[in-house]
Amino acid sequence: MRLSEEGVAVPEAAEEYPTVSADGLTWTFKIRKGMAWSDGAPLTAHDWVFSLRRGADPATGFDFGWFYADIENWNQVTSGAIPVEQLGVAAPDDYTLTIKTSTPVPYIPMIMTHSFVSPKHVVEALGDNWSTSFETLVFSGPFMLQDWKKGRYYIYAPNPYYTGPFRPLLNKQIVSMTSASGSGAATVQEAYTNGEIEGYQGVGRAALPAVAADPFFNGWLKSYPDFHTYYIMMESTTPPFDNVKVRQALAKAIDRELICNTTLKGFAEAAWEMLPRGFPAYSAEHKKHQNLDVEGAKKLLAEAGYPDGKDFPKLELWVRNEAGRIDSMKPLAEFAQAQWKQNLGIDIEVKLIEMKVWVEARSARAHPFMFGSYQYDYLDPSNMMNFLKSGGHGFFVDATFDELLEKANTNVFNPEERIQQYQAAEDYLCEQAGVCFMSHDVINQIIPPWFSGKALEPNKDGVVAWRGTRLGTTEFTIYMNQNIYDHNRPDPTVR
User: Fold this and answer.
1) What residue ranges of the chain are covered by domains with CATH 3.10.105.10?
2) What's the mean pLDDT in 406-426?
3) Residue 73 above 50 pLDDT?
4) What is the band of 485 on the pLDDT scale with cuts at 50, 70, 90?
5) CATH 3.90.76.10 occupies which residues in the chain?
6) Topology of domain 225-442, per CATH?
7) Which one in 196, 260, 306, 470 has a CA-CA gap of 20 to 30 Å to 313?
8) pTM over 0.85
9) What is the pLDDT of residue 389?
10) What secondary structure, in 3-state letters, does the chain show?
């Protein structure tokens, strides 16, 4: 399966969308016939069985194993309790792959968009180092590695053995390792002028003002929400957060748009919900529950027994000191602190906590008030929503929320109803202020006008599919509508 530019799991190595058994527990994928690895060896269902068993094998030490935990016996295999042969995957023949789950799991096709199949014949011959050398790498997708200069660049070219439905439109794809984000140019402009880049995935905080002000890049800068949400967790079983009115008051007392349009301008979008704009099941209707309402927040806090913040306990808001995230987390936390003081009269201390200590405290639920964030791993609402269920990482313990989630999580046969069920669960979460949402990250990319393709076209929510390889590998839809050498572009591989 591959993720389309619309964010839907579509068949690639499979002939058609997989079928599921009447009990919702067995998915059957019909594998295309005639597929081959880039060394000419046949690509069959046995390669997927081999890859999934290898991922579950405790000897492999696969650090993303939780991703496939819905497969029958996955956790027992990874713990070493039972052999890999008992994993719920099978290949009855060369062109049939079956995946069994213990409960109905509607998002198995989406999970399989991340099933990076390994070549059984190569791994068995060369071991785990097969993928570390240009000479031994083999590929099954639209592109294959043509050249690789470690620390400088790697070049992809169309794979002549690829017979799937997503034939590439580019005859070469150069990924530069020496750009403005690496060891080469100091700025995006310099990297572009030097011919190191044609597009840029993540314009950083230091570079964005200059890029935005540079008339040369007028119309090239594209911004849209990343699927990464920042929020404040409140332990709903511990005072004062066991009172829903306290949680609601805190959530309604923050002007999220103010900080996102000032301090974090260009890098954050106000959030009143877990699922960002453009993510499956996103709904703008949830905003009403945590939108700024100072008078309403004061009233709720007074009804909870803390008029004008009187007698409200002194609390510490723990913020994890995480590289790459602290530049957003710290100002967001401090802004919430200031808003609560100004609008509710309560004093909160923001405390930076070393990453390891913070993670251990969250896992043990040892501190009731923490600032966190989560970035999606696969494009299905189950991924981001399940993170917040009881016993999860959101600190919200609520049977009604869990029941609403479970209905959606197990709805295999009615995808439209399933989306509505997630929206109902999220609406309840926001109304109960189970989590106080703050912002979603914003991605800034440079896309020159000579690139076109469906993956670069904004959808109804203003989001584009292409963001490097983070949201699926959709570059096969991208093409060049004019000759870049007409623009005096140098060859980035010649230096």
Assistant:
1) 225-442
2) 97
3) yes
4) low
5) 2-132
6) Dipeptide-binding Protein; domain 3 (3.10.105)
7) 260
8) yes
9) 93
10) CEECCCCCEECCCECCCCEECCCCCEEEEEECCCCECCCCCECCHHHHHHHHHHHHCCCCCCCCHHHHCCECCHHHHHCCCCCHHHCCEEEEECCEEEEEECCCCCCHHHHHHHCCCCCHHHHHHHHHHHHHCCCCCCCCCCEEEEEEECCCEEEEEECCCCCCCCCCCCCCEEEECCCCCCCCCCCHHHHHHCCCCCCECCCCCCCHHHHHHCHHHCCCEEEEEEEEEEEEEECCCCCCCCCHHHHHHHHHCCCHHHHHCCCCCCCEEECCCCCCCCCCCCCHHHHHHHCCCHHHHHHHHHHCCCHHHCCCCCEEEEEEECCCCHHHHHHHHHHHHHHHHHHHCCCEEEEEEEHHHHHHHHHHCCCCEEEEEEECCCCCHHHHHHHHCCCCCCCCCCHHHHHHHHHHHCCCCCHHHHHHHHHHHHHHHHHCCCEEEEEEEEEEEECCCCEECHHHCCCCCCCCCCECECCCCCHHHCEECCCHHHHCCCCCCCC
- Please give the pLDDT value at position 472: 55
